[in-house]
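Two entries, shown back to back:
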Amino acid sequence: MSAKLSNLVLKEYTKILKTGEFSDVEILVGEKQNTKTFHLHSLILKVCSPYFRIFEILINYIYSGKLELAKNDIKTIIELLIAADELCLNELCSYIEKYLLNDKESLKSNFILILNTIEKYDQFTILSQFCKTSCRKDPSIVFRADDFVTIGQECFLEFLTKYSDSLKQIEVWNKLTEWAIAKSNNELPSDATMWTIDNITTFGTLIQPFISHINFQKVSSIDFITKIKPFKSIFDDKFYNKIVEDHCLNADLTSPQIVKYLDSQIINLRDASLICNWIKAMKKQKWEVTYDFDLLVVSCSFVNSGV
């Protein structure tokens, strides 16, 4: 809508506010003799303010006992839950929480909305328990939420304090990068490979409080080189050198990748795992293939005979 047209609409709004024409809502403001009645329009109020949409739903519930939550999205339902709590409609609050719990997929998709809600309103015990149980079982549920980037800094820090050790550390770094881009007010391009020195400085400022919560020692060397080293400048020199030193010292101690497929017609995975145990001189058998087996020669007779 152009500025000229917008101004015209606002003038019409002002006119009907003064005249009260077509009004269908009256709001009385003031006390005793000092009061004033405003003649307003429910359509305009509902379009401009979510509060009035929620208020209408609550009024209908109070007068009729009917509530059709299925017609509303989860954000509206959460707003309704908060409004019901403020009006001390405890039975309605309990009903709404149980309704939300029956749609776990929506809760998972909007997990940050739920987290932010229970952070402010700890009386919503059903939702609170759902969040706590979900995080204990699988902390990465936070990262998979559609609304992940809306998580607040304090909430994010608290989450990492509790669950960072249960998460893949490179995943923490990747999601932290995604979060910082969203919080940068369009200062950071979505493609980190295009960042300027100033962009990297902005990034460093945003993620500084989180760095101590990442165990860089558990990041693979290839991920460290490709995804973290380009941002070396955001780290304290002493801290960065310690990370590199730890990587060098512990290179042999990192958990090897487990091979799931073997391109061979002669040996199978169990045979390969036995060979791995011989190489490591392991007394106790461990049925994992932790070395790469490369196929060097293929006989034509084998190929033709299907061996």
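entry 2 starts here
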Amino acid sequence: NLRELDSTTKVPFILIELTGEGDGEGEIEVTGKDEYGVYEALNNFFVHTWGCDPLDPGDETEDTKVPFCSAQYRWPGYSVKGDDGLNNQGLMTMRLIDFMCGNLSWTLAVVNGGNVGENRDVRETQLIFKAPHPMNLVAPHLLVEVRSAGFIEVCADLDEENNAILGSLDGYFADRFKASLIEGHEDFCDRYYEAGEGIFKGSGGSLDSNFGLLCTDVCDVITTHEGWSLVACNTGNYGADGRFSEQQMIFRRDYHPLGDSKYLQVILNALGNIEVNGQHVREIHSKLDGFFRGKWKCERAGHFREGDTLCRRYTWDVSELNMLRATADVVTFFELQGWATLHPNSSQFRTAVAAVAAACLASIACEVLHDTGHCDVRPVGDDVDSSEFRRAALLPGVIRVGRWMWCRQWRVRPAAGNTKSRIAVLINIQEYAHWPRVVDKSWGALCENMQRRSADWEVVTWPDLMERNVDSLVDLLVAKLHGLDDAKVLIYISCHSQMMDNDPQFLPADARGWGDGVSLSWLVRQLDAVRPRNARFYIIVNGCLTNAGRIDRWCRCCRRVQLALQSEELDSARLSTRMLRRRSDPQVWMLFAAAPGGEVAGDEQNGDLLTRKFLEALDSRPGSLEIEEIYNELHTAVWNARRDEGGPLHPYLVITTGRLPPAIPHETSEASQQTCASTSTLQSTAASTAHA
């Protein structure tokens, strides 16, 4: 599966599996691309820090064992104690995350796990990391493990700036779980709590279990703390009869724009039970009730509430169970309701768990898609029935397919009272802590200038251009444009770039692993797909694409994405669901201007060159602001500017639309570039400029 994933993306992935077989007995497997020296770094970490012994993983030759991984280790550091499930798997998982993210800057993508063996006391945890991103060096993680046996574990890699959440969790667990902090478990976790009597009800998978409700409540509470969001979760059952449940939830303080969004958990059980846990957001419980009872012919099996969190139960016919199809049906339902599917997970007992998050942004109700996790289940041992395994397994990537297929224009409710026909979206992704020079020092002045125009312009600031935020930005704009005539939208993006695999990427939001140079093209494609007949878009990108070659490669990268998204198969799927508008003329045009110099123009006093020139154009128009008038003036100012090391900035212009043009020449003469900048170019419906 990882090879297939690697073959379809330039972003490298690596999978690390921790298996705890007994006290002092464990195994570690590593597979994936050996990029950035990660195998050597992991070998040193496992051998010298964890005391592991390297094993022969085998290869594909006939005289060796069948390989299941690229590197394998005997792991003596796994510890287990007692019969209540106490082990250090969570602690070691967090230490591995801390090393991979905090030291090597890889990005945590998926954590999946489960319990196998006769007593389900063999624990497996799979961690998938994707290509390094520098922001991981400063983004802390937090793991909370809840066990229905009555215990809660917390493991964290927090510094003084971020550890305030631990004190808050002390109070929450004491109040909600009647839990007491137990000392002396430092070898197993950072904080160990014992819940009060009667807090956990029922056995794993039973109709009276409140385990899922409690886990959903924990997730909702932690994500209300500033900057924290759910990254991954996994669940399992243990004990001789599987009566106990355990769930790990991993959070990251990445200041995700979803903020304190509420989560809903849906559990599909092969025993014939369905469980829904979460708060009653946007009548979702009522709608889901209609779906289960109408389409699946389920019967209600009761419900109960604890605080604001509701648990509903259903019974369903599993005589001809197709868990893969059932999971896809549930995901489709939530996508159509404007919810985002997050972190599907499975185990032998609890076959599918889908946690779904909804977001309410500003004054409109719209949703932002999270990155979708993958689930990988494989049978272990001779006691696993193959038919049960097939029913329990979830196909990796099935959730992501649904993500591409659903249009979201119709999901957005118009913002109440919005009458302004001029909207400015300001996106500053230059706050790059690891390279202080990459800062737009004129950004504050630009924001102040636009805010002074608030009588005519509605100004929206946006955090970054990661793919999930692009979706929500488009939704936000569609809502604000509803009911307006002859509207104009200015999107000003200040960023930086780097090269990776011969494709330019934007820093920091689009750096390694965050989009591979796709997010900006994704924004254009989404705006083109919206096709609002009542609005024109002007996109100004203040970047650092340092030469014509980079622009060429970036546009070819965009073209590959565009062609992939316009395949006949996908179009047919969209048309079959009546969610694809018929093609018409492109509505979004982008105009790039890039300099051959390698440094950000400007200085500490004057700020970034393009933003400074844009400010000068704004200051000369204190009254009305017409973007069409500014563009040629802005282009000429950049063209005539000179770099400190000598030579003009030489803007390099490219026009591209929703239907991308043929390959762009690597070199363009100054005369032809000036022609591209002529007034006729401005008759397009949107313009974008990038410079170094």
